[in-house]
């Protein structure tokens, strides 16, 4: 899907096209609509880069209890090898 935004939206916000995309993705991430990995992929950066964007805005990671359990399971799986 392609979304076209009016040029005057970016101008009105005092931002370029990429900055508007960042703002949209940060908002979607904050709402829990997109994952950190997906937002980073759309921006063409790694997850750490998107985490830095969030940190610069004072936002915490959406890191659920299930995420913690997944990380523990992955660590146990790879730790045994």
**Principal-axis shape:** elongated
| Annotation field: number of helices | 5
Q: What is the string of SSEs from the N terminus onward?
A: HHHHH
- Please tell me the total number of domains: 1
Q: Give the radius of gyration.
A: 16 Å
- The low-confidence parts are none
List the helices and strands and how they pair.
Blueprint: H1 7-13, H2 17-30, H3 36-43, H4 47-56, H5 65-79
Characterization of this structure:
There is one protein chain. With 81 residues, this protein is mainly alpha-helical. It is 67% helix and 0% strand. It has one domain. The chain has helices spanning 7-13, 17-30, 36-43, 47-56, 65-79. The chain starts with 6 loop residues before the first helix and ends with a helix.
State the main characteristics:
81 residues, mainly alpha, 67% helix, 0% strand
Summarize the structure.
The protein has 81 residues and is an all-alpha fold.
């Amino acid at each position: 899907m392609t979304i076209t935004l009016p040029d005057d939206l970016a101008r009105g916000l005092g931002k370029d096209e990429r900055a508007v995309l960042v703002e949209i993705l940060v908002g979607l991430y904050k709402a829990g609509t997109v994952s950190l990995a997906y937002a980073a992929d759309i921006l063409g950066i790694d997850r750490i880069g998107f985490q830095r964007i969030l940190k610069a805005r004072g936002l915490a990671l959406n890191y659920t209890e299930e995420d913690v359990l997944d990380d523990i399971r992955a660590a146990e799986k790879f730790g045994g090898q």
